Amino acid sequence: MSGGGLLVAGTTSDAGKSVVTAGICRWLVRQGVKVAPFKAQNMSLNSFVTREGAEIGRAQAMQAQACRVEPTALMNPVLLKPGGEQSSQVVLLGKPVGELSARGYHGGRQQKLLGTVLDCLGELRGTYDAVICEGAGSPAEINLRRTDIVNMGIARNAGLPVLVVGDIDRGGVFASFFGTVALLSPEDQALVAGFLVNKFRGDVSLLEPGLDMLHGLTGRRTYGVLPFRHGLGIDEEDGLRVSLRGTVRESAVSPPVGEDVLRVAVCAIPLMSNFTDVDALAAEPGVVVRFVDRAEELADADLVVIPGTRGTVRALQWLRERGLADALVTRAAQGRPVLGICGGFQILGEHIEDEIESRQGHVEGLGVLPVRVRFAREKTLTRPEGEALGEHVTGYEIHHGVADIDGGQAFISDDKGHSLDGCRVGQTWGTHWHGSLESDGFRRAFLREVAAAAGRRFVPAPHTSFAALREEQLDRLGDLIEQHADTDALWRLIESGAPQGLPFIPPGAPA
User: Fold this and answer.
1) Where are any strands of DSSP class E within 180-256?
2) Cα angle vertex 299, ends 298, 300, to 5°?
3) Which of 122, 163, 306, 446 is deepest in the core (most CB within 10 A)?
């Protein structure tokens, strides 16, 4: 195989495109195939920094890990980071190039990016045996088809076969499959090879009559029925896929090693970014993580986390409106643990000068850390490493805010003890580094400090490896494809393209 490819599309957003793409990637790499992921355009506040300092969607970084390759900007050339209801920051080849409204983007800018997107895909296909592409939303968004560069637009220009994923757990999957095909033009329909059912619960034999009828109606086969599995929603990109008052993940919480559990409350601030920072906490046996939006929900928390946000000033206002700001200030004064990450760190400072993100100028922060923040036009995108609490720690930075720290203790330092990032006053901590809690030794040391301050007899598990847990999740995704999809047929699709002579399903796309 050389330069083979596949586009994984979906009947809706959150149909499972990201995890199916990762599963196919992991299955292929286990067969000895040199494979890479690709998503032409991603809308997400959950992003990552590559080694060359490029910002891409975390879903593509996770898929690159499934492929056992380093992520690069080629794998996600266009990233849109919403800043509100009306506009998004456009990140092109890993660097921000400006803010655009949805109308401005879809009205012309998007189509101009098609050449760049195709160049990136072409470079990947020239380097790898196979490239597994992920679509966005639905390919049947007929109002956006003319300027589409991520679904059928990329499939048509690159000659990619298309596999449509549907989430049967939501219901209506047969209608969604049929309608998706029937709303495409004849040229687009010719590339839609078939379907993949996701999140099925029950006896597959009961589904088979429907799959047979779907094949009769569309002339397209179903390539697999993936069963529902808990705990596989890793690095989602389109939003927060958890209840604000539920647990972070659906997987069972392991029992604590010590006598007590540790309760972590994460403030569900607006435009929350990189909420996956707390996944490493949730992976610890005996740590219970929940997202909260009311002040009273902080009362029994042993640790409160203020996560990153694309709207620091807006998040600060939201905290004040809900009484959470006062509760956080009181908590810090009482010496009860608080951790601010990136935008959350900035919120804990004395004041913010913002002419870039909110353009509100001088804004007072919560004043619990001796930090003054100025928003710079240039975005910081780095992959730093250092030491904290006597342990090695790595992370990644994605922020416009520049922190001037005047007091407190350094949070993260270099090997000579010079401050690299962040600040600590008592049991209030702040850092710009995303992903730092994935460093196992540092996470355990931090949780020991939190437990001591909270008076909990909690003991971190001595051998929890977040990287190993992530690998286990990716292997489980690969197992789903290997065990529940027709892998021989998928091979043929990736290698040879869509079958010839697929029938046209009327009415097709409107003229």
Assistant:
1) 192-200, 221-227
2) 100
3) 163
Q: Confirm if 340 and 316 have CB atoms less than 8 A apart.
A: no
What are the mean pLDDT values of the chain's consecutive 10-residue runs (511 residues total)?
Answer: 86 92 98 97 92 95 97 96 81 89 65 90 96 95 90 95 95 95 96 96 92 97 92 56 39 73 95 90 92 95 96 95 97 97 96 87 95 94 96 96 93 91 96 97 97 96 92 94 97 96 92 61
Judged by phi (left if over 0) then psi (alpha if -120 to 50, else beta), residue 425 lies in beta
In total, the chain counts a number of residues equal to 511
Closest by CA to 232, choosing from 373, 62, 382, is 62
Question: Which amino acid would we find at residue 308?
Answer: G
Q: Rounded distance, CA 48 to CA 63, Å? A: 12
Report DSSP state, residue 210: H
Which stretches of 49-161 are DSSP H helices? 58-67, 102-104, 110-112, 114-127, 152-158
Which sequence positions are flagged as catalytic?
Answer: 342, 434
Q: Which tokens in the block code for residue 266?
A: 């994460």
Q: How far apart are CA 225 and CA 195, in angstroms?
A: 9
| C-alpha–C-alpha distance, residues 424 and 38, integer Å | 40
